[in-house]
């Protein structure tokens, strides 16, 4: 069958797999004429792929470039952009004929408080792609036989964030940075990474990537002082210094690290790294400092180290490794995209032993994941996937399940980590065969499944139909995550993109948007956070118009004469900035929700349980929303018990 307009015509209901050498011309054509609906490009990932292509470190990936039954690109745009911008061809699996839509059947959802009727709904299958966990740098380093992969990953990310504000790296980029800070042979002198990864940590601390990063960079210029600093770290007593007391900078920074007084998530590692560098400078100066004084470290901390890194050529070397591309580069390339040449089909690569769409049975799934260990969060994701399979919400997407094999389709093999272990656990829980793309491979691709995971924000953005709706949709994501944590009762629970769209559609999205528009009037950024907006929206949805009117006063900074609103406003602001009172913590969110309900209902003495009961009784969608979230603690325990029983039965068989 010959391709027409750059793609094959696939018979209805069939999926066809081919291995194709994708050239720059072909990639540009597909991006220009077959990419009508996709999320925004994350250029950091494209730049990462380009580096690997240019340096010859790009392996054949098991993830296909996927087109639906209408010829539209569903998955693979970041890889295609890497080829389009670099001009270097690469071989990919190309899958055509994936159904573009999935019709969710009508049904009944059994939840606490009675059954809920679900209406039939049609969704885009593309919105179900890239929801699983991607392989991060730590996974790639471990697969590359790096025993310190996990600690090394966080250390490198911290170094890059401090030195050039560029992350995350690919495996090849990471290995080039490692060469700068680690000796290449036993005959070479020790370097920063060799020292910091073996350093003893104070009691009460297991790991600290920013601390490793600081020591690795400082050792290049102050080896003796770093060794002395590291030696004193391990001798810091467990007792906390008295509030306001002047202590050694090392004891002060250990207090900061133990109490996690500076966040390290969400790109905040450089902030903690600057605090550590400031303590090092104070130690060299022989100055004592209180914990609060150390926490007031400014952005100028570490400038001396940055200058030394620049003078030593470190930063220039790193920047050459991380060449960045822009949106203008994309637009210039697309202007010249014309009808491509005939698609060049090639032979299946040697590492890919077999690739086809097959029905995976529960027995096969149990066998392939027999050596896998799942966290409660992963079990919850698998349980959600099993529920989706049961309710007809699971679609054929073209994402592969990859089995490591030495001789083809031999059942006594194991799943490749990052390529279907959650889906296989879902099939095991579901108990029936499910059709998926199944790939048997003899090796492992260190580039594969390292792209960007689809987030709630991506999902909401793709489902919005106007520009204004897209802006509002992306802004909903943090507040929806807070609502998901509250409904599930778990601080660690993250809603899936599919759950985020469901929560938004049944009413929380409208409530969040209304509260967010009110919050834009406030000059305090603490009042505009996702956790605060989520708490307020949860209460407003339950109490209606009266609640929105009162909440408007909360966000209006000019209304100082409204004492109850002013008091709540000051309480939220102080709670966001105070020690141990971050509104991202579930207990703090619950307390904030109680305060908001007390403010709306003029009932200052209401208890937390009373406030929760008020919301549950008055909300029209609370029960539906809670029923759609599977990952509460009881369900996790049930899943663990079910998995253990299934595994024992499989072992007996």
Count of helices?
Answer: 28
- How would you state the average pLDDT, rounded? 77
Taking all Cα atoms into account, the compactness measure Rg is: 27 Å
How many extended strands? 12
Strands of the widest sheet, in order across it, are 1-4-2-3
Major beta sheet summary: 4 strands, mixed
Based on helices, strands and strand pairing, what is the structural class? alpha+beta
Q: What is the percent of helical residues?
A: 40-55%
Total discrete domains:
3
Question: What would you call the quaternary organization?
Answer: single chain
N- to C-terminal separation? Answer: 45 Å
| Residue share in β-strands | 5-15%
* Overall morphology: globular
- Uncertain residue ranges: 1-5, 576-582, 630-637, 646-653
């Amino acid at each position: 069958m010959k391709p027409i307009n750059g793609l094959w015509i696939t018979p209805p209901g069939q999926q066809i797999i081919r291995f194709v050498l994708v050239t720059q011309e072909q990639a540009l054509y597909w991006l220009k004429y077959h990419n009508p609906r996709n999320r925004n490009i994350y250029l950091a990932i494209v730049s990462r792929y380009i580096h690997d292509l240019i340096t010859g470190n790009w392996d054949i990936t098991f993830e296909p470039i996927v087109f639906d039954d209408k010829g539209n690109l569903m998955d693979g745009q970041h890889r295609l952009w890497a080829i389009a911008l670099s001009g270097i061809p690469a071989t990919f699996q190309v899958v055509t004929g994936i159904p573009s839509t999935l019709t969710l059947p009508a049904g009944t959802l059994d939840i606490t408080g009675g059954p809920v009727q679900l209406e039939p709904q049609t969704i885009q299958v593309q919105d179900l792609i890239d929801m699983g966990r991607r392989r991060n740098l730590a996974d790639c380093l471990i697969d590359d036989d790096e025993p310190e992969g996990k600690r090394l990953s966080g250390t490198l990310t911290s170094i890059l964030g401090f030195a050039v504000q560029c992350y995350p790296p690919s495996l090849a980029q990471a290995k080039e940075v490692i060469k700068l800070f680690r000796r290449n042979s036993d005959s070479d002198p020790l370097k920063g990474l060799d020292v910091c990864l073996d350093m003893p940590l104070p009691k009460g601390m297991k790991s600290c990537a920013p601390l490793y990063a600081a020591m690795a960079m400082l050792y290049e210029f102050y080896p003796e002082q770093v060794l002395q600093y590291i030696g004193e770290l391990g001798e810091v007593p467990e007792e906390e210094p008295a509030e306001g007391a002047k202590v050694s900078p090392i004891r002060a920074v250990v207090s900061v690290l133990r109490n996690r007084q500076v966040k390290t998530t969400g790109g905040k590692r450089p902030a903690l790294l600057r605090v550590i560098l400031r303590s090092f400078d104070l130690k060299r100066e022989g100055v004592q400092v209180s914990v609060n004084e150390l926490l007031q470290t400014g952005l100028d901390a570490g400038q001396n180290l940055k200058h030394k890194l620049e003078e030593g050529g470190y930063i220039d070397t790193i920047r050459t490794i991380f060449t960045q591309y822009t949106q203008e580069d994309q637009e210039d390339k697309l202007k010249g995209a014309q009808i491509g040449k005939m698609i060049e089909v090639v032979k299946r690569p040697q590492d890919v032993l077999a690739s086809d769409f097959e029905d995976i049975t529960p027995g096969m799934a149990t066998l392939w994941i027999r050596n896998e260990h799942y966290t409660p969060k992963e079990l919850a994701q698998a349980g959600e996937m099993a529920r989706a399979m049961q309710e007809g919400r699971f679609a054929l997407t073209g994402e592969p399940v990859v089995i490591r094999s030495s001789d083809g389709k031999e059942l006594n093999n194991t799943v490749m980590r990052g390529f279907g272990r959650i889906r296989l656990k879902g099939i095991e829980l579901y108990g029936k065969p499910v059709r998926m793309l199944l790939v048997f491979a003899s090796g492992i691709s260190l580039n594969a499944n390292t792209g960007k995971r689809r987030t709630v924000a991506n999902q909401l953005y793709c489902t919005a139909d106007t520009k204004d709706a897209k802006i509002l949709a992306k802004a909903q994501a943090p507040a929806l995550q807070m609502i998901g944590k509250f409904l599930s009762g778990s601080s660690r629970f993250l809603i899936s993109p599919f759950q985020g769209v469901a929560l938004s559609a049944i009413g929380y999205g409208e409530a969040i948007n209304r509260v967010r528009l009110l919050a834009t009037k406030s000059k305090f950024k603490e009042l505009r956070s996702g956790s605060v907006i989520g708490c307020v929206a949860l209460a407003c949805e339950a109490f209606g118009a009266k609640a929105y009117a009162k909440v408007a006063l909360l966000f209006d900074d000019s209304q100082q004469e409204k004492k109850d609103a002013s008091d709540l406003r000051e309480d939220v602001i102080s709670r966001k900035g105070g020690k141990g009172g971050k509104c991202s913590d579930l207990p703090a969110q619950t307390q904030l929700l109680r305060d908001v309900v007390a403010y709306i209902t003029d009932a200052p003495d209401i208890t937390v349980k009373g406030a929760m009961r008020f919301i549950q009784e008055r909300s029209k969608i609370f029960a539906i929303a809670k029923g759609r979230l599977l990952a509460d603690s009881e369900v996790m325990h049930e899943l663990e018990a079910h998995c253990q029983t299934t595994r024992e039965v499989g072992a007996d068989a």
